[in-house]
Every structure is written in structure tokens, then in C-alpha cells.
Amino acid sequence: MQKQGYHFVGQHSAVKTCEYTANGLRGKTLCYKYTFYGIRSWQCMQATPAIGCDLGCTFCWRLIPEEHGYRWNELNAVERWDDPVSIVEGMIKEQRAVVSGFKTDADTELKMRRWEEARQPRHVALSLTGEPMFYPRMGELIREFHKRGISTFLVHNGTLPEAMERLDPLPTQLYVSMQAPDEETFIRTVRPKIPGTWGRYRKALSVLGTLNTRTVLRMTLVKSLNMHNPEGYSELITLARPNYVEVKGFSFVGGARDPQRGLSIDTVPTHGEVRDFARRLADLTGYIVTAEHAPSRIILLSRDEDSKRNRIIDFSRIQVADSSRMQNK
Fold it and tell me: Which of these, 237, 257, 251, 249, lies nearest to 301 by C-alpha position?
């Protein structure tokens, strides 16, 4: 993982600079989160407080230990969890270390301004790898980010509905991954490591619809695997009633290239195919096709006109407490 660019924080957390953060610092194409929600790619941290996972998704870029002969118990990987303050401060420190190397490329006023801003992250995507909700103090972690004026997007795989119900405070935006339209496809696609996961997943979708924050279902479509049965997906969308649905095409990168997973470049849908599938979902659910980001092959659906109109994050509403503390670190 270190060879792949992961920077570890404490016992079980990590950050990693994504392509679009680098692009933002170089003045190039920005992330879909900028197009959809106004997140500045160069001020975004891609992170996780837990690198273990209870799924083995076939399309995941992550290296799955069992596929490489490691018998690491990912469901019980640490004896003691790090405290939220040390995790947040460690993530900010590592992010600054990563972006420091881009200063040599800051040869224009735009690039230099973005480099200076990148040292003060304003957003964290808790979606890097593993299952972030394994971390038992997630609410406290979110609070620490918000104290520093950092918005939070938390991506959950839907296997821990009880942890969702306990979240306090809630993140700026809460995601649940939606990788299959039915139980058979679910088991084949995400390869759960514990029994009864489909039932727990459906419960998580019902919980999502009760939470007082921005909510999203995030899809990863793979041809010949889970890119079928739009009626099944529409039933799950109706169950969860999220503000947004992100319909994204699979990318053939990282661990997904492992031959034993059975994927190939031919299973990668085109942007046009993803758009057509998203439009079908919109027809079935009444959701509104709102935006798209062709480099990521992703389409945004909004639940209604209010969600469509209010999709850009208002950073002034993120709680800021002792902002000088972050700047002095």
C-alpha cells in the first residue's frame, strides 16, 4: 500500500492524494465533486480511519489480502483504536507533506495560490479504502473535522446500519454504496465476508432515508456483472430516497486488474452507456438528471428541484472552532 502512495496515520488510518488533487494543483481538470458539489479538488483529502473491510468487491482498486496469500483478519484488525484528535491532526500533517512537493510546479499565480490553499484542507472524503464505519468513534471524528472548518463526505458500504443510527454528529454528506439490484448480484459483486449482509444492507438503505443530512447512493457499474435490472435499482432508490444518486462507470485500475477477479477493459462501460443507464433510472424513479463528469464517467441524479438547486456545498455553514489551531500545526 505504501508503494501505491498510501500515507499511514497511527495504527489504522491513511491518506492518499488522488489524481484530481494533483490536477487541481497543476491547473488541470478537476474532480466530479467540484462539478457536482463545489468541492475544491486541491483542498480535498482522500482518507480513511479504517483500512479493513468486510467486503471483497470485484471492482475495487484495493488489494485484497486473501488474494495475495495474507491471512489478516480485517474484521478485528486492531486492539486499540486511535483517538479522533490524533487521527485528524495526523491526516492534515500527511496531506501537507504530500502537497508540499507540488510547490516546484507552482510556476503561475493560479498554481501558487492553489498550492497555498492546499495546505489548508477544507474537505475530507472518508472513502479512500476499506470500510470507514469500522472506526467506532466516527461521530467524534466528524466533529473534529467540522471544528476545523473541514466538510465531510462519508462513504459507507451499508453493512453496519447500527453504526449509521449512532452517528452524532452526521457528516456533511452521507453515502451508501449501491452495487447490485438484487441479492444474487450483490453476493457475486461484493463478495461479503459475513452472512446475512444483504438484509443488513437493505436496513441501511431504510436508515439512510431517516437521517437529517445530505444523502447519496453511489453506484459503480460493471458490464456483464451488475449493469442490469434497472427496476431492481429503482426499488432500492425508492427505499432510501436519497438527495442524490451518483451513477458511475467502473475503472479497470489497481486490484481490479487481478486476473482472478474476472474483469477486463471490456467490462468498463463508456460514458454514453452510463448516461443511458442513468436516464433509465431517472425515468423509473422520477429523479432528475442534473450533471455529468465525462472524465470520471459519472452522472448525477437529484431527487427533486430543491436538491438540484442546493447541491453546491455552503462552506460557511461548516462549524469553525479555533481555526488558528489548524493553521499553526
Answer: 237
Structural domain includes residue 109: yes
Cell numbers representing residue 163 in the block: 453504526
- 158, burial (CB in 10 Å: exposed 0-12, middle 13-18, buried 19+): buried
What distance in Å separates the CA atoms of residue 288 and residue 51, rounded to the nearest whole number? 35
Asked if the structure places residue 260 within a domain, the reply is yes
Residue with cell 431527487: 303
- Give the residue numbers spanning the domain of 312: 7-327
Q: What is the DSSP letter of 321?
A: S
Give the CA distances from residue 98 to residues 156, 178, 183, in Å, rounded to whole numbers and listed in that order.
26, 31, 41
pLDDT in tens, 291-302: 999 999 999 999
**Residue 121, CA atoms < 13 Å, CB-side half-sphere:** 31
- 36-78 confidence digits (pLDDT tens): 999 999 999 999 999 888 999 999 887 777 777 777 666 666 7
Distance from C-alpha of 194 to C-alpha of 209, rounded to nearest angstrom: 24
Q: Flag whether 1 is in a domain.
A: no
Cell of 91: 491526516
- Give the 3-state secondary structure of residue 36: helix
Residue 2 lies in a domain: no
Beta-strand relationship, 244-249 and 298-302: antiparallel
What's the domain count of the chain?
1
Residue 70, C-beta contacts closer than 8 angstroms, at least 6 positions apart: none
DSSP track, 206-271: HHHTT-SSEEEEEEEE-TTTT---HHHHHHHHHHH--SEEEEEE----GGGG-GGG---GGGSPPH
The strand order across the sheet containing 123-126 reads: 7-9, 13-15, 44-48, 123-126, 151-156, 173-177, 214-221, 244-249, 298-302, 288-293
* Cross-strand bridge partners of residue 301: 245, 289
* CATH code, domain with 109: 3.20.20.70
pTM: 0.93
